[in-house]
Amino acid sequence: MPNSKSNELSVVPRIEPGLSKSEQTRRTRALIIETGIRCLAAYGFTQTSMHLISKEAGISRGPMNYHFADKNDLMGAIAEALPLGAGQDVLARLRAVTGVDARLAAIIDLAIEQHRGMHHFAAIELLVAARQDPALAHAIGPHFDVAENQLDQWFCDYMAELNWARDTLISFRTVMVAALRGLALDHVLQADSDAHKAALSMFRRIFLSHITQAENQND
Predict the structure, then answer these.
(1) In order of start, what are the domains of the chain with their CATH numbers?
(2) Are 63 and 18 in contact (CB under 8 A)?
(3) Neighbour count for residue 82 (Cβ, 10 Å)
(4) Distance (Å, rounded) from C-alpha 107 to C-alpha 143?
(5) Which of 59, 52, 61, 51 is nearest to 15 (CA)?
(6) pLDDT digits (tens, 9 = 90+) for 28-40
């Protein structure tokens, strides 16, 4: 399920000369992981090989083999890195928002903004491929589990003013994420059609109105 709009990868930054060996090693690993995410989003899991990632990153197979034993090892590292896709600046922007309605609106708007992003598509590619690949599932599963637990905790803290039970907040986030994954796949089929735009608008209204209705019932 590659992103139908991405026939070429964005330019990936190359490693700068004059760095210390440890920093060079760190940046090379980060470059491989970021390139792997881009490849998954652009070409899909099946076509994303170690050779393709090496070529797109502009590095030889030596550094690839030094950092990662095989494709599944790299996919595990990618799964671990995917939750960082939002970036600290985005999280800081969300934390600056106050009030339940405003906070939920901020999260939903960010989700809509990122639902076609490469990190989202890379995650979908890994999850779908792992359904029929036990070795891949073993490599990525623990990282996705940790990420989901961290995101659940972050969401519960962020939306604490709702005074909902933790299980209810987690269920709300789970349904929202599931809907976004469906919308991402819908965009593959319909691109920026009027139908897709209407679906995004409905997604926003449904989740915002659910909060409003819940608050009214608690009054």
Answers:
(1) 21-81 (1.10.10.60), 86-218 (1.10.357)
(2) no
(3) 22
(4) 23
(5) 59
(6) 999 999 999 999 9
